[in-house]
Amino acid sequence: MQTTTMTDYQAQHFLWATSDGVATITLNRPERKNPLTFESYAELRDLFRSLTYADDVHAVVIQGAGGNFCSGGDVHEIIGPLTTMNMVDLLAFTRMTGDLVKAMRACRQPIISAVEGVCAGAGAIIAMASDLRYASANTKVAFLFNKVGLAGCDMGACSLLPRLIGQGRASELLYLGRSMNAEEGERWGFFNGIDDEPKTSAKQVAERIVAGPTFANGITKNQLHQQWNMSVDQAIESEAQAQAICMQGQDFHRAYNAFVNKEKPVFKGD
Description:
- By secondary structure, the protein is α/β, with parallel strands linked by helices.
- It has helices spanning 38-51, 75-82, 87-106, 122-129, 157-165, 167-176, 182-188, 198-211, 214-226, 232-247, 250-260; strands at residues 15-19, 22-27, 59-64, 111-115, 118-120, 132-135, 140-142, 179-181, 193-194.
- It folds into two domains: 15-211, Alpha-Beta Complex (2-enoyl-CoA Hydratase, Chain A, domain 1); 214-260.
- It is globular.
């Protein structure tokens, strides 16, 4: 089987670092509150596609530099050019941005967003598409597409957001484009926690995930995503097959032997 080593990956449009199985992506345009460009969208999409085959990364943290997460698409480098494009080029762009979310959901590694300050537009989508989200108290999340004359149905928002916070709450945010504060986000189930140092919380959770059975964690992510399109009976059968696969793994045997010997299991992801 072909695998990819991502430790030496050289990012062009954001910062990339790996340590002990945890990769950290830092959106790094703090002077503009870390907006995305055509190039950073595409590189993030390609990176998450590559992570599907990475054997040295088992969890990913996404964060922003300078006290903000991401202000969305850059007004001058994306929004302006979009107003001059024809339909063919516009559809190519919207499909490309949607492909980023598809790649995030398809990669086997759990993704944890550490959200601070501004988290708007595509930044809110990236947080939404992550598996876990931790926020600072000053965080403001805004799906503000209708503020610029667009529909709220952007990059999967009408599918993913209601599953996180409920249909009515998602409708409110998408119709009004208003900000959701950190307290609301935690109460509604968007955020897993609020912390003075969400980057620290995200890293600690990532480290706990990496210390667990990483192959099995990847199966869990796959099933959480795939079962949105299944009936209950289909889901139960899918889980039966997935769990049988995990029972073939060495981590399952390590856990049993550790229990018998009254030890803590050391998982190796195989």
